[in-house]
Design a protein that fits this description.
The chain has 310 residues and is α/β, with parallel strands linked by helices. The protein has two domains: 126 residues, HAD superfamily/HAD-like (Rossmann fold, 3-Layer(aba) Sandwich); 110 residues, Rossmann fold (3-Layer(aba) Sandwich), CATH 3.40.50. The protein is built from eleven helices and 15 strands. The structure holds magnesium ion. Magnesium ion (MG) binds next to loops.
């Protein structure tokens, strides 16, 4: 078996096939924590990186598995860090779940939601009805999210509907949400594990990274082919695994969780390993300029060939 050399792509000597892949990129999907900021501290190179992308005509989205905050909440957080982003540039697993339900279960309108008030509002704004905690108020589907406002009776009611065989979807697979506080933030995957213990059922579908459906809404929104998207993140088993599943370019940055050693131990190999988004930005812009110059040269030689033929 060929040995993985994690240092291979960290140099600027990228191979031809990879360079062609990078030259095709029209959109950069950015993981948030560990990629554009760490905890509550924005990386100093984030805003210059975003400005460079904008100047080069490359769109970007901010992507998060965490559905506990609404798009508005995230935009406010980004604004406080100095990033002015639009609603269209923000994409959470709640939005991906809404897109999935609308595309695959258009008949579903009434949901039993296990989620924060922000998440419930997001589903209601998308046209769904959030049913009450009552055996008489039968939903069409159960949706479980990272419910930081979890109420025991609602967990029991969700389990009841799951036991009745209703379609059952989870917004994200994360077992815990990272925190620097002295606590464990029990995430959606662990709430689903509790329902599974009680009912014997796992969710029918789990959206959120590494599920490639997390990117479907972005592909639709910007009319993109997966080969035109770079997924940039700091985790191999979510960000890079999703890039592989969705057949986009997978870019690992070393500013968060994963290390070069992790690539060897997990066997999850990104297309590109960059120290941070700034170095990836350099690579992206350089390759676009090379591609544009080559295009100009080819066009010139084409014109001169046509002249010679006349
Ligand atoms: Mg991250």
């Amino acid at each position: 078996m060929e040995k993985i050399n994690p240092m291979k792509n960290i140099t600027h000597k990228v191979d031809l096939e990879l360079r062609e892949k990078i030259q095709k990129i029209k959109h950069v999907a950015l993981d948030m924590d560990g990629t554009i900021y760490k905890g509550s501290t924005l990386f100093p190179f984030t805003i210059p990186f975003l400005n460079r992308l904008r100047q080069a005509g490359i769109n970007y989205s901010f992507l998060t598995n965490n559905p506990s905050k609404s798009t508005e909440d995230y935009l406010k957080r980004l604004r406080e860090m100095g990033i002015s982003a639009t609603k269209e540039e923000m994409y959470t697993s709640a939005q991906a779940t809404i897109a999935y339900i609308k595309n695959n279960h258009p008949e579903v309108k009434r949901l039993f939601l296990l989620g924060t008030p922000s998440m419930v509002m997001e589903f209601e704004a998308a046209g769904f009805v959030s049913v009450a905690d009552s055996a008489e108020d039968r939903p069409d589907m159960v949706v479980v999210g990272f419910d930081t406002s979890l109420v025991y009776s609602r967990l029991c009611r969700a389990s009841w509907w799951v036991q009745q065989g209703l379609p059952y979807i989870a917004t994200n697979p994360d077992k815990v949400c990272p925190t620097d506080q002295p606590t464990v933030l029990v995430d959606c995957g662990s709430i689903c594990a509790s329902i599974e213990q009680a009912t014997g059922r796992k969710p029918d579908v789990v959206i959120g990274k590494p599920d490639p459906r997390m990117l479907d809404g972005i592909l639709e929104r910007y009319h993109l082919h997966p080969s035109e998207v770079a997924m940039v993140g700091d985790r191999l088993y979510t960000d890079i695994r999703m890039a592989q599943n969705a057949k986009t370019l997978g870019v690992l940055v070393l500013t968060g969780e994963a290390t070069l050693e992790d690539i060897v131990t997990t066997g999850i190999e990104p297309d590109v390993v960059a120290h941070n988004i700034e170095t990836f930005g350099d690579m992206l812009i350089d390759e676009r300029e090379i591609s544009r110059d080559t295009g100009r040269r080819d066009a010139k030689s084409c014109v001169s060939t046509m002249r010679q033929q006349k």
